[in-house]
Fold these 3 entries.
Entry 1:
Amino acid sequence: MNKELIEGEIGRYVNHKLRGWCRASSSEEPRKIECLLDDKIIGEYLSNEPRKKLQKKAFNSINHGFTIDLHLSTKLNHKIEIRDSNTKQPLSNNPTLIRGSSEQPLVFFVHIPKTAGTSLRLMLDACFLEREVFPNMKDIRSNSGLYPDLNEIFSIKLDRLNKLKLINGHYPMLVADHWLMEINLVTFFRRPAERVISHLKHLKKNDKSCNGLSLEDIYSKHKNSLVNLQLRVLKNREYKTAHLINSKSSNFNETKLIKTLDRFSAFGIVEEFDRSIAWISDALNLDLGKKIFSNQASPEFTVSEELKSQIELDCKLENRAYECIKSEFYNRSAYLRTKV
């Protein structure tokens, strides 16, 4: 017998109430769900409340919502799991992390490769104790000098998570959607063609699979992952289709991009590094101190004018998005003009 397909998601946590929805694909009948708090079942609930957001779906009924009262500790993170009581299938965004409230929200640095991110990471790291950072240098060294993968983030034990004040890495923005607690998001952007060229040189120098290949060959091999990367990384609840943008895409959703930028406490652009650091420092209420420059592109590799022209052409869509990002950057950091 085929297992019944369950769909639904964990929604927002507001005023001590956790909301979401759940239904079976083969029936409009209300489903019983169970909630686990820190791996312990705390109760069973019925998904029979109306949810206006379900009007967009081809359901016969919108009465598949649920509300769970949760009065949580204001100082600790709690793991929440919601699953169908009968089939034990988990809902989307499972498991998630919730904090009742937070005096100092967790900082999550979305590190887009080759956007001065290593410099900002080191500056942020210096603001916290090693045990307050994931991944810290010990985590990175134990992973052959690389950021741990997504599975390691979601498997962080609660006793360590409750001590964290900073998470950073080459992780997409959607990671923040798994945690229903206040998070200060920051990131850095760069002119697309410059970023691609820098990334290309990085692959030439560090990726063993690129040994013996010309920059042209490497670009041909990795073009789909290099072009429009800065847009794909921004997949989140406001821009759920961002990851589908590839090197052949001809459009992006400017409205969703701006809504995504709204979620960041601050974001920088490489060409305005000082101003960016000032805004991020102010938004996070941190003294980022002396500038640190690290992981700069290798000067020994020369990119031909033909390859530069091809990259510029391929980055046409991302350039349009970057102009939007740059405009938002100047508008939102305008108050810094007297400070920088």
Entry 2:
Amino acid sequence: MNMSPKKKADMDAKWQKVAAKAVTQEDFKQKLLKDTLGVMKEFGLEIPEKARVSVTVDKEINIGLPDDCDEALKEEVTWWRWRIAAIKEFGHELKKSSEDVAPMSEEGI
């Protein structure tokens, strides 16, 4: 059995609010990068209890599956992995944009 369409739609709607806020509010993006799971929980998104979650010292979030998981759990964990990768990308974007900013020469003005 796959994740119900209603549950997926609910998770997607909540994610859209997180993502929109992250791309429009720098302070929120920083908070999301520092406390990804906490912020997601504030928006009503929690990793399923049966999934195994580990967070490394450098804030890398890993989500594992139990041996006896069903398709719905696999699908939900995949959803989470994609969203966590997107959040991580927000951080790379931030680093890249601050590193790529070069002083403009008079010719470019």
Entry 3:
Amino acid sequence: MKARSFSHTGVTVADFDRFVQFYAEHFGCRLVAVGESDPAWVRGFFGVDAEEPRCRIGWLRTPGGGMLEIFEFTPQQPAQEVAWSRVGLTHISFDVKNSYKWHDHLVKKGVEIVSEVEESKHGHTFFFAKDCDGNLIELIDLKYRYPLLRYMGWLGGWIFRRGMYKKYYELAP
């Protein structure tokens, strides 16, 4: 069996409205659903130990169809700084055209920039910024690889699975 596609990434946010506005303004994401969870469910499912815990859940659709599922809990726990070398999720990424223009655009908008634009040995460019909650965002211009990955990525996966990456598929369960 295999998954049909990547569905979404979940992010817990400090301020639901501010997060939605940040991603709408800077990346064109649109809120497509929002709801409140029952306090008993928030206590039981999420393990929020409070008398009347709350959780607002929303879905932001990114250009191209990706989704961010966002959670705002009350009461909240403090954020933790992302450590690249710690096991776990580190960042989200947007595919863009012209990393340099995006970098300048976000600087002018006052978005916190973490790194200057870098170019890989394969020619794609990227840089990192932070969102309104300090989450890392990579903006990457895949250049000529974008259409190859978008339209032919399945073929590359099929070929590489049988060739140069075969050892990764032969691991014992």
